[in-house]
Design brief:
Blueprint: E1 15-18, E2 38-41, E3 44-47, H1 66-79, H2 87-100, H3 112-121, E4 125-128, E5 131-136, E6 139-145, H4 150-153, E7 161-165, E8 168-169, H5 175-182, E9 189-195, E10 203-208, E11 210-213, E12 217-223, E13 229-235, H6 242-254, E14 260-264, E15 270-272, H7 273-280, E16 286-292, E17 298-303, E18 314-318, H8 325-335, E19 340-343, E20 353-354
Parallel strand pairs: 13-14, 14-18, 18-19
Antiparallel strand pairs: 1-15, 1-20, 2-3, 4-11, 5-6, 7-8, 7-9, 9-10, 12-13, 16-17
């Protein structure tokens, strides 16, 4: 499932581009203190009068008063109608709110449980309905139902807007929360109320969850009417195995001496940027994409792979469910004149996220 798939942290850091990936600020597993006396509040330590949190930036605005934070904390702990209020819930919620204040659908803080689930996604195994979900115009939206999954079999379409999950409205709901609600144990049912382009009324769909195993690349030889052979490679998402599978597929197809290649990126919601760059290296040697950073500086992302498909007539299939890394690949091949794009206008996401794993 976002970009959040219903998707990974590895020992090495990956730069990732995703319909929904996550950044997490280095806030740590606790809340430290500066100088002065402290008051213990559960697992959280409260700064005394006049103190600032340990590690706070030196240029912290004078408008930021952490005593207000603790005043709200204590008010909730003392007066909220449903007691007791867990310190860990308030703490994790504060971190979520801090990142949410960026008002950016692609920047998210994951609680430990969600972080664990997210780590499974790009590994290609999870339990859910098998649909990539993102935010489009502030609305939780189906980016792409994965082939041969409950979502696909139930008729979900790219672009379907999710109005309700069960009886819960998605108005103002973060994508990661929506994914968490839609996921669940295999064999259980989730109801989605959808707004579909061209439909007069909302559509309610009941979907039985199951274990989803996603192989990111598949390929085969197809024959034209005149008997010519054409290689076809479908990339469903860009995960850990995508680049190696893709190039293995290219080697197998080239044994058949195809006259051309079709790269199918329809409903591919994205994934790791480095995987997309590696795949582009089958046609391009050198710069694949240029990143423009927050400070205005630019970084050229290059591939040094030998371009085994250079000069091979290539068509890339795209649709409204092609997003992020798939758009990077398609755009690079088009700009280099290495391929012709065929299909529909793509999703429209060119931002890059880093997934950072924190101490807890």
């Amino acid at each position: 499932m976002p970009p959040l798939p219903e998707s990974a942290v590895r020992p090495r850091q990956h730069r990732a581009i995703f319909v929904l990936l996550a950044i997490a600020l280095s806030f740590g597993a606790g809340f430290g203190l500066g100088q002065g006396k402290t008051v213990s509040t559960g697992n959280v330590v409260q700064a005394g009068q006049g103190d600032v949190p340990d590690g706070a930036p030196k240029d912290l605005s004078k408008d930021v008063d952490f005593h207000l934070f603790w005043a709200v904390w204590n008010r909730v702990k003392t007066h909220y109608v449903k007691q007791p209020v867990a310190d860990t819930d308030l703490f994790q919620g504060a971190l979520e709110g801090m990142v949410a204040a960026l008002d950016d659908p692609y920047s998210v803080y994951f609680k430990p449980q969600l972080a664990e689930e997210f780590s499974k996604d790009l590994a290609g195994t999870f339990e859910g309905i098998g649909a990539e979900i993102g935010s489009k115009g502030g609305v939780v939206t189906i980016i792409a139902p994965l082939p041969e999954t409950p979502a696909s079999k139930a008729g979900l379409r790219a672009g379907d807007k999710i109005l309700l999950i069960g009886d819960r409205s998605t108005a103002g709901m973060a994508v990661d929360e929506a994914v968490n609600l839609i996921r669940g144990k295999g064999g259980t049912i989730v109801s989605l109320t959808l707004l579909r382009a061209g439909a007069k009324d909302p559509i309610k769909v009941d979907i039985t969850r199951s274990k989803i195993i996603v192989k990111s690349v598949r390929w085969e030889i197809k024959k034209t009417k005149d008997g010519s052979k054409v290689g076809w490679i479908q990339v469903r998402q860009f995960n850990d195995e995508t680049a190696s599978l893709f190039h293995a597929g290219v080697r197998e197809l080239l044994k058949e001496s195809p006259k051309g290649m079709i790269i199918d990126l329809r409903n591919d919601p994205g994934g790791y940027l480095d995987a997309a760059v590696d795949v582009a290296g089958a046609w391009i040697q050198g710069t694949v994409v240029i990143e423009r950073k927050y400070d205005g500086s630019e970084n050229s992302v290059e591939t040094k792979r030998t371009p085994t498909l250079k000069g091979m007539p290539t068509i890339v299939l795209v649709n409204q469910g092609s997003a992020s890394a798939s758009e990077i690949l398609a755009g690079a091949l088009q700009d280099e004149g290495a391929a012709t794009l065929v299909g529909m206008k793509t999703f429209g996401k060119g931002s890059v996220q880093d997934y950072q794993q924190l101490g807890d």
